Amino acid sequence: MFEELDYQSTPLGDISLRRRSEPRFDNIILYEVKLGDEFLMSSLFTESEIQLARLGLAALKNNGHNDKLELVVGGLGLGYTAVAALEDTAVQSLRVIEVMQPVIDWHQRGLVPLGKRLTSDKRCQLVHADFFELASAINGSFDKEQPAKLVHAVLLDIDHSPKHWLNEGNRSFYSVASLKNLSQKIMPGGIFGLWSNDPPDPEFTDLLNQVFLSSESHIVSFPNPYTEGESSCTVYVAHKSL
Q: Among 4, 10, 110, 168, which is least packed, fewest CB within 10 Å?
């Protein structure tokens, strides 16, 4: 039923990449990622990851940032957020920060469909590092070689939601102190965007509003062929003051 393309141990657990056909949907080819026994992502459901980039970029432009944009994406996954960001010619550079080296390897080895698009784009750099460690640090930036460097937007897609973490250690990021440290790495008028698998959470919106000038949550709906209905995710967009 499926082909396991890679299986490696990481500090977060065993991660695997598999490819399979789905006979229920005309044998389309799907790519799936599992961490232990838990499914992390599927190439069948990518609309909300794409909208994370598009909604973030639209907010940036509404705030007056229209060219030479420098972005950070937290979490590489199958690459859909990163590719959607690079489709915008206003993006000058994109750093994708991924804590699991095997995920970066999949893209560099061409094991996933979008790998070559990312690795061949000179604007894109795949960085093996802990996003939460960099984002929460009191000093420094997302680029250790340029500790004073600010970016226009940070787009985060790692945890399942602000209350459902991939790793218990990520919990402390969702606090006023850590978000303030993150905001100091973003330019005035910049954006922090976050993907969540859960419905909009008023408590998290309140948290964002304690740190940023304003924020909003967008419900992104998409067809779910398994249920023959619709599913949805949430994209939060927080605005830093000018």
A: 168
pLDDT in tens, 16-59: 999 999 888 888 999 999 998 888 999 999 999 999 999 999 99
| Domains parsed from the chain with CATH numbers | 45-239 (3.40.50.150)
Whether 229 and 193 have beta carbons less than 8 Å apart is answered as no
Provide the token pair at 169.
């250690």
Instruction: For residues 85 and 93, give the distance between their C-alpha atoms in angstroms, rounded to a whole number.
Output: 10
pTM score: 0.96
Burial class of residue 241, CB neighbours in 10 A (0-12, 13-18, 19+): exposed
* Rounded average pLDDT over 82-93: 98
Average pLDDT over residues 196-207: 98
Helices (H) and strands (E) in the chain, counts: 7, 11
Q: Maximum CA pair distance of the chain? A: 53
Q: Tell me how crowded residue 130 is: count the other CB atoms within 10 A of its CB.
A: 16
Structure tokens at 158: 């790692």
Q: N- to C-terminal Cα distance for the chain?
A: 53
Which class for 84: exposed (0-12), middle (13-18), buried (19 or more C-beta within 10 A)?
buried
